[in-house]
């Protein structure tokens, strides 16, 4: 039987640290109940009322499914074509356009106050919960307690649980009302409790910032959050662009952001073929499905979207969906339907790169920044198109099977 560690020890772990990840998870109700005793003490120290401690905290339940989802990783990587195709659909575009029109007056007010155009607010709403169609059904307090009592990220989720309890008391939310994702995200815009406390706004003036039932509160809160993340008014998120052929992909990614004037000098154009407009702003170049797919320049607001969700796929999807909702057209270059790579294939790729002197870290089956940089460096050394995309030619050069 796994032994429970004191919550004080768990809280000393750094989020995502390898040390925390090595601790055993709670294996039975008795161990979880012991953790709940410690959570009661933490709640008291956080200023939670005794009534809430006796009712909500005392009745917290362990949810094994939460741990399964936290630990579970997909067997296959997701391609950009698959990701975008499932999120920027014609039905979602059409629904977004209807909602942009329906909430026109509110969105205009939000744009004036927070500087965020309505189509972006609606796009975030669409990607987070399909415009409120699915906000999650798991009890937030139980989910957060399960993760708080699990050693892997105990400190972070204990803090989120304490904040959720404070929200419950502040707005008199019932435990049954507080439902959401397995990780504790809530409402139309899927705010974690800490972000809920910091950025949720009572937009409809009823005295409660209710992200579950008030569309006005949810959209206002999204605009407020984006403003605090640094949204720049009167600027786009970025745009699809056309690259000249041949093109040197050495300048890919956020670390190589440079002024639009410099990208224009490299003969990168708008998809219409017109020259890039060249205001005094920086952009970074992304080719999420390799050199055969669409290319994008991401501006400062692209980085803001990334602060909401640290995924280039997500940021491009939000920006493109916002463009489509605002009357824009589909991408000029359709993302190619690449084969999905299994985690085992990615591990083999990473090991092969390490073996060839291109250090990407311990093979984990995840195509992170280090792995992409390693792929790009290897491609360049072999005279391949160095776009950092692990295509069939790269696998073949490494002596690996791509299928």
TrEMBL record:
Keywords attached to this entry: Signal
Transglycosylase SLT domain mapped to chain residues: 32-323
TM segment ranges: none
Signal peptide range: 1-21
Top-level taxonomic group: Bacteria
Domain Peptidoglycan binding-like, chain residue ranges per copy: 343-398
Name by which UniProt lists this protein: Lytic murein transglycosylase
Organism of origin: Shewanella intestini
């Amino acid at each position: 039987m796994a032994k429970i560690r004191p919550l004080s020890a768990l809280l000393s772990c750094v989020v995502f640290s390898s040390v925390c990840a090595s601790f055993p998870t709670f294996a039975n109700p008795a161990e979880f109940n012991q953790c709940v005793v410690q959570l009661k003490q933490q709640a008291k120290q956080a200023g939670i009322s005794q009534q809430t401690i006796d009712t909500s905290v005392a009745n917290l339940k362990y949810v094994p499914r939460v741990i399964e989802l936290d630990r579970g990783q997909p067997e296959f990587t997701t391609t950009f074509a698959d990701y975008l195709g499932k999120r920027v659909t014609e039905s979602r575009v059409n629904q977004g356009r209807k909602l942009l029109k329906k909430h026109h007056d509110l969105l205009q007010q939000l744009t004036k106050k927070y500087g965020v155009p309505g189509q972006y607010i609606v796009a975030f709403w669409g990607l987070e919960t399909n415009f409120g169609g699915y906000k999650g059904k798991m009890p937030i307090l139980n989910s957060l307690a399960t993760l708080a009592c699990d050693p892997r990220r105990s400190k972070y989720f204990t803090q989120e649980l304490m904040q959720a309890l404070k929200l419950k008391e502040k707005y008199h939310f019932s435990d049954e009302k507080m439902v959401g994702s397995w990780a504790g995200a809530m409402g139309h815009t899927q705010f974690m409790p800490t972000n809920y406390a910091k950025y949720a706004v009572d937009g409809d003036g009823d005295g409660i910032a209710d992200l579950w039932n008030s569309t006005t509160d949810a959209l206002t809160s999204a605009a407020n959050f984006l403003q605090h993340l640094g949204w720049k008014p009167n600027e786009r998120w970025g745009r699809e662009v056309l690259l000249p052929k041949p093109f040197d992909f050495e300048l890919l990614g956020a670390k190589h952001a440079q002024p639009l004037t410099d990208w224009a000098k490299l003969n990168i154009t708008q998809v219409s073929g017109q020259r890039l407009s060249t205001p005094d702003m920086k952009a970074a170049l992304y080719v999420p499905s390799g050199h055969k797919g669409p290319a994008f320049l991401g501006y400062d607001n692209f980085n803001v979207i990334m602060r909401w969700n640290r995924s280039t796929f997500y940021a491009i999807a939000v920006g493109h969906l916002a463009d489509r909702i605002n009357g824009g057209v589909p991408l000029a270059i359709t993302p190619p339907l690449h084969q999905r790579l299994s985690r085992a294939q990615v591990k083999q790729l990473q090991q092969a790169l390490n073996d060839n002197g291109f250090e990407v870290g311990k093979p984990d089956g995840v195509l992170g920044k280090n792995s992409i940089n390693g792929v790009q460096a290897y491609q360049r050394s072999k005279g391949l198109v160095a776009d950092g995309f692990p295509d069939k030619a790269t696998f073949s050069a490494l002596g690996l099977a791509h299928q």
